[in-house]
Amino acid sequence: MDQPAKTSLRKLPSVDEVTRAAGAAVLLEQYGRQALVAAVRDVLAAARTTESTPAIDAILHEADARLAAKSRSKLKPVFNLTGTVVHTNLGRALVAEAAIEAATAAMRNAVALEFDLGEGHRGDRDDLIRDLLCELTGAEDATVVNNNAAAVLLVLNTLAKGKQAIVSRGELIEIGGAFRMPEIMSRAGAKLVEIGTTNRTHKKDYAGAIGPKTGLILKVHTSNYRIEGFTKEVGARELTALAREKKVSLVNDLGSGTLIDLSRYGLTHEPTVKEAIAEGADLVTFSGDKLLGGPQAGFIVGRKDLIALVKKNPMKRALRIDKIRLAALEATLQLYRDPGRLAQKMPTLRLLARPQKDIEATARRLLSDVAAKLGDAFAVAVVPCDSQIGSGALPMEKVASAGLAIRPRTVKGAGRVLTSLSNAMRRLPTPVVGRIEDNALVLDLRCLEDEAAFLANLAALDLRHALD
After folding, report:
1. What angle do CA 231, 232, 234 make, to 5 degrees?
2. Which of 109, 145, 267, 277 is least buried, going by the fewest C-beta atoms within 10 A?
3. CB-based contacts of 255: which residues, under 8 Å, 6+ apart?
4. Per-residue b/e over 327-338, b at no fewer than 16 CB within 10 Å?
5. What is the Cα–Cα distance from 468 to 464, expressed in whole angstroms?
6. Half-sphere exposure of residue 61, counting CA atoms within 13 Å on the CB side?
7. Which of 296, 145, 168, 299 is closest to 221 using CA atoms?
8. Report field, pTM of the whole predicted structure over 0.85
9. Residue-wise pLDDT tens digits, 250-276
10. 343 in helix, strand or coil?
11. Do 190 and 156 form a contact (C-beta atoms < 8 A)?
12. Mean pLDDT estimate for the chain
């Protein structure tokens, strides 16, 4: 470093000088002394590296920017324009306002979580939702854990630890994140007994596999894939008769699970939990945060004696949910008592039920503003497209939707431009997540309800990198 540079750096204020300056008072109140001192040190260190001598106000401004960036939540709200309504990577179901209010109240207050107000002694947190679950499913008893994988793990560990669990090869599912049913069984201490073939399994296959070491028969609803063509599976009702004859338990894992017939919303019928109980399953497991439209949870419903065994398993405590999710679940389940108005109050069902013509009208209203913001380098058009439910539910089901297709006007480098545009959309204050297909960035508008907020957010779009 030459002498002029050394002289210049001597002019840099000390950390103490900066934090005692008038402009520092607001930042000290907002971030605290320790955080502000650390940020000022970082700014001064950067100034020494670049041999610059910023004024105290400039140092405080940069320190504020750094602290603000660190303070922003990484769990950012986004505009989900992917066309996947229950998107696993975007948080799955949007919960009802009633559930949000209940969760907020639970966070703000002490609550009777495991306290019997009538008797004045310790209670059971499952009591908060047990009656509701039994009413809505027809089950004798119920309990809840933190997700459906945990529900299956807990049931297997309770009923089949050190024993055999019989499953059709066609039902050995893999769910998101490469979690596979055989691995869950292994962790639960159950020995997997595969029967049948990938596409065909018969009742005689189950009957031939049952023996003195059998812990349970596991029926797995293949909610995230379909095997079509020359196929055969054994229905739950048939398996119930066999299980009772052989005196073994039948567990039906519905995966996504639903409490209502989805055909009323124009979707394909998906087996309901009530149907699974009526067919005779001893225990049924299903999710709370997919088709049900609540927070993340896994339910176990069925025979009272088996639920009692599950609840005595030490793993139950490790897998239980807290007061916040219990409050949200209770409020969500309460809404199912009024199925006629469910779509009005449950965001997930409301979005799935949106008519294509309404979504197309949204696209036409947005078209000119979006095109004006993107400029002459892009062509924007209203297009029909297909939405999907997501999170493994009804994987073959497509729901007619509409959106905006954005295409570069020049063919050369179009793929790079689309990728850059998609990146720019995700850098917005509220990131916009769409999908690239058919040489276009498609914004499926099924899940867009606040058009004004979307347009206001789009005003911050920076296309410089996309058009370089």
Report:
1. 155
2. 109
3. 148, 173, 175, 220, 221, 222, 223, 224, 286, 287, 290, 392, 393
4. bbbbbbbbbbee
5. 6
6. 5
7. 168
8. yes
9. 999 998 888 998 888 888 888 899 999
10. helix
11. yes
12. 91
